[in-house]
Every structure is written in C-alpha cells, then in structure tokens.
Write a structure and sequence with these properties.
234 residues, alpha/beta, TIM Barrel, 6-stranded parallel sheet, 3-stranded parallel sheet, 8 helices, 9 strands, binds fe (ii) ion
C-alpha cells in the first residue's frame, strides 16, 4: 500500500513526538503492508519566508531520524517528504510554493478549513495553483461531508481526493465508500496517522474490511491510484 498522508516526522507538528515514535510508527505501518509512506507535516503558509522556514524545520526533523531509518532492525516503508498545506489564503501567490509538493512530483496535499465559513474563493485559489502546474490532492475529504459539497466546489478542476482510512472503519463506512465510487474521480485512502495510540496507522484493518465489502477496487484505493499519481513503484 501507499500512504500519502502521515504525521510521522518527529517534533514538527501534532504527530510523532520523538524520533523513536517515528521509527515505531513507520515499522507498524510497514508491518501492515505499507511500502511507501509520505510524511506530510502541517504547513501554514502566509509568506515565502514561511515556506523556507517550514522546509528547514522539515529537513531537521527528517535528519533526526535518517540514521535511525538507515540502521533500523525493522523493515520500514520508503519515506518521501511532503506537506499538508492549509488553504486559508491564496497560497498560489508565493513564488516557492511548489517546494511543498510531494517529493519529486507536482502533487500537493491541501487541507481545507473545517468550518462552514470556508472561503468562497477557495476553488479559485485551487484553480490558480493548478495554473502553476501544481496538482492538488484534497486531504481527508470524508471530513467535509455534510459541511459542503466538495465535488460541486471543485467541479471542472483537476483535483484528486484523499480519504482517511478510519472512515471505512466507522459507522456507515461501507455506504460512504460506495457513494464515493459513484463519482468519476480519483480517490486515495491513507492513514493520516499521528501517533501509536488513538490516531495510529489503520491501513491494514481498513484494507481488509474494504476488500470484503467492495472487492478488488480496494487495491485501486489503497495503492494503484496513488501509484498512478506519484509513479513511485515500478
Ligand atoms: Fe493530516
């Protein structure tokens, strides 16, 4: 599986607290069948300086676990660097914004505000990002069901959608996924893991449940769609 949304880097956001946590989270994820994991720390960007500051902090966090990854006695997924970029302003105006794309790709994970007052210009901002060649993946769209109609908001735009695997495991998960599949769009399921306890990696449980409920399309949702976007696995 490919997990495009994780908070696995240490001491950079509300995810892993220590390098040891990071390694344990990665090892757990690998044990569950994840072969590629994208680290997507929260990024709140209001200037070009914020981008540089974020990229430096992310580099430090990555370097604090790099030697542990290299010398790990556990099997670990391949780790790529990305960001979960908060869309509370028109981030397309910042010259260096593409530095926040997932490593070696044009894809960027974008997080929308959860409140009902989501800015009416959001779709325009997303459109402007696409004009810069950035390919948006909207994070955990399951969170916005009943808040606004995301398919209507982004209709006509080339955006992909990420769904938290936990949604499948919650009440009504099967119906939720079946409803999603009616849309002609690309969905990728990921963990959005933050820790080893209440927001841990749940990819294996979600995959197994989906496989029973919706069959072979599960492989597209948990791996093939993400691989078609990111071109990671041969
Ligand atoms: Fe997240």
């Amino acid at each position: 599986m490919i997990d495009v949304h994780t908070h696995v880097l240490p001491a950079i956001d509300d995810g892993a607290k220590t390098p040891e946590d990071s390694i344990k989270m990665l090892a757990d994820s690998f044990k569950q069948g994840v072969s590629v994991c994208v680290a997507t720390p929260h990024a709140i960007i209001h200037s070009n300086d914020d981008i540089d500051e974020f990229v430096n902090r992310r580099k430090q966090a990555y370097e604090s676990i790099k030697s542990m990854i290299d010398g790990s006695e556990y099997g670990l997924p391949k780790l790529l660097l990305g960001a979960e970029v908060y869309m509370d302003n028109n981030i397309s105006v910042f010259e260096d914004i593409s530095k926040l794309c997932i490593e070696n790709t044009d894809y960027m994970l974008l997080e929308l505000p959860i409140n009902k007052n989501i800015n009416k210009n959001t779709a325009e901002w997303v459109y402007e990002l696409t004009l810069k060649g950035i390919k948006p993946i909207m994070a955990h769209i399951d969170r916005y069901v009943g808040v606004f109609d995301f398919t209507e908001m982004f209709s006509g735009l080339d955006v992909k959608y990420q769904v938290n695997a936990a949604r499948l495991l919650s009440f009504g998960g099967r119906r939720f996924v079946k409803d999603l599949l009616k849309y002609d769009n690309t969905f990728v399921f990921s963990s959005d893991m933050h820790n080893l306890t209440f927001r841990k990696c749940n990819m294996q449980r979600a995959y197994n449940k989906a496989k029973k409920q919706i069959g072979d399309i599960t492989d597209s949702l948990f791996m093939e769609n993400a691989n078609n976007l990111l071109k990671i696995l041969k």
